[in-house]
User: Fold these one by one.
Assistant:
Number 1:
Amino acid sequence: MISDAELLAAAARTLEGSAFRLHGRDPATGLDCVGLIAASLGLIGRDICVPNGYSLRRCDPAPFLSHAQLAGFREWEGSPSAGDVVLVRPSAGQFHLLLAVSANKFAHAHAGVGRVVITDRPQNWPTVRQWRLSDD
């Protein structure tokens, strides 16, 4: 049986190439990193309340962290696997979400490239938090 986490990873793969748009929630018009997670969850039948009101830089993620639990994720430590969501810090004052599509590949909405990409995880982006999807 395929787990919801594996389905989530497969859903994220289908969104590769979608345009980047800050606060974007629709693959047809563009996604940001939060929108990528939300759209992937929607594709597997898990609609969630998605946070808004954040900026691309200088944003404190603390007010938004409870959304992960509400979406069915639990905090996780250890090596990522397909379906895990990782909050990273690409630079001082900037936070970004990655969705693992395998143990070493991640989907994310890349503002610089202007689209959703699947890449290796940048080694210089430290992990702030990590979540694993529950199957319930």
Note: The chain has three helices and eight strands.
Number 2:
Amino acid sequence: MLSVGLRPCSGAILVLLFTAALGAFWIGVVGTLAMALGTAITVSSLGFLTVASRALALRIVGPGGSARVARIERVLGFLGGLLVFAIGVILFVTAVNAPAGPFGLS
């Protein structure tokens, strides 16, 4: 999980570049730290909700539902992958059919 935070964020780099160009570098540093805190809160919350919801689902199913749970996990995993694939196809088709210039001008 720590390695996710090691990559540079393009938004933070832009904030730092703009504030440095305006002569307010430390304001950019504070803004970047605020962005990092917001990202940390969001990612941590999603991770906590994922673990908690899985534990709740396993408690609801009970100890005798291991085969049923495995089947449901496979189906949900397949549907999740299918959803990601469909979104990728939609984004690709949209990008291919987009106009070459801004505002629909070629």
Note: Helices lie at 10-21, 25-61, 66-97.
Number 3:
Amino acid sequence: MKKVEAIIRKSKFMDVRQALHEADIDFLSWWDVSGQGDAKQGLIFRGIAYDVNTIARVYLSFVVRDQNVDRSIEVIRKAAFTGESGDGRIFISPVDQSIRIRTGEVGDESLYNREK
């Protein structure tokens, strides 16, 4: 099992969510987050300085079976892609154990995503 975490543009969230749904990845969590990239600039408007380095993003997180990892990554990459700087990042981490509280299922069987 792997944990997939992605930080994407807020404007691409619905596209990514729909693409994951079409790939049978329906159970995920997301948060609205702010971050800072490598661009260092400011904006002065009518004598007031604004920090435009802080960027609104969406942070996605879900756990999938090992055989669904590559498909999940490709779905996110395609749906979140704009070709411009700031499209985001995807992080993959191993998951040692998963247990469904309601049923006591352990491992892959505790995950919602189907085997493909």
Note: The first helix runs from residue 13 to 22.
Number 4:
Amino acid sequence: MIKKLLIANRGEIAVRVIRACKEMGIETVAVYSSADKESLHVKMADSAVCVGPPAASRSYLVKENLIQAALKTGCEALHPGVGFLSESADFARAVTESGLIFIGPHYDVIALLGDKVKARKTAKHFGLPITPGTENAVSGVQEALKALETLPLPVIIKAAGGGGGKGMRIVRHKNEIAENLEIAIREAEANFADGRVFIERYIENPRHVELQILSDGNGKVVVLGERDCSVQRNHQKLIEESPSPAVSDDMRFVMKEGALAMFRELKYQGAGTIEFLVENDQFYFMEVNARVQVEHPVSEFVSNTDIIREQILACTSGKMDIDSENITLSGAAIECRINALSPGKITRLETPGGPGVRFDSFLYNGCFVPPYYDSMVAKLIVYSATRDRAIARMKRALDELCIEGIKTNREEQISIINHPVFRSGKFGTSFIKDEIESKNGGQ
């Protein structure tokens, strides 16, 4: 067991990792920008190191500063958290070559899965269906037009080396391909320093479903069920739940078997998710996130598993405390992401409690929410025996939640949870646009 670990991140995920480490007897080192000096993760860690000014490009994204902070404080391992450098193969390589343990898969695996063109080929090799599209990256208009000869419109242009909605363009008419291809390539280059794009069939209003994976790198791979992440805006998730109302037992089995084979062959180590688009009774591989996900607490509730603990064990010792035989999935869990709509000082914070309620956050009374980083400030997660009861519990928990001093999306989350379409379980990724924004004048 390692004795000391640096968390190369901030906010609620840093707090989450610190909590797991405290239970494991691992000393923690936090890093912070000057804007985060009074942040909760800094207060909770055993020690903390400032790694730069507020801008992430000069602090949380500076590889050398993070690695030096770990080495100078005597850490044996580094946890990248989510976002920032968590899926950077170059960062994972630099961490490993410095003599530290990277809490994540091998950098070659990260590089392979981070390339969506290569990832699609890998998934196909293991029998997972992929969305019809170009086998390789598309470099020009003529190649794009040739692809349209076999692909039905609409299609979507995607960045090969990125995600999060960047470098993505939907094309509904053939005469729009040239302009959108140019924009997608430009966005991909600007955001990922990789201008390669590919084209695939665009699926209207699919379900977005992902499997939670834990793997020790030595052949043991465990699937902790699936999560439904279909409630999203501009490809940014707002609500996640498990199990998915859209996944049948047969579909779940095929998804799981393909994922198990793929992660075993890759000798994947740590936590990860494999994501799919679901259309009626058919599913298609989309991508792998080679890290822990923001929404991992949903799977922790239904599987009674500490995913961060197992991730650290897998990456530091090659062993996990869990296996498929001692995992039983039960009940239903829902997570609402609480996003800040403005920066500011928290003047009042009252968090919900009671059975089956969890509040993951870096907020505390009197803290300041800076304007420089991701807008998510908290995650409210509930668990109950059935989906209907989990929805009722979430409604109650949202009613109890009080955050003053900043504007948040709490009211929107309440409207979603109360919406009859959401409660029916029959919706897709256009739910927000079709059922919420269209009823509110597009706001």
Note: Residues 347 and 371 are 17 Å apart (CA to CA).
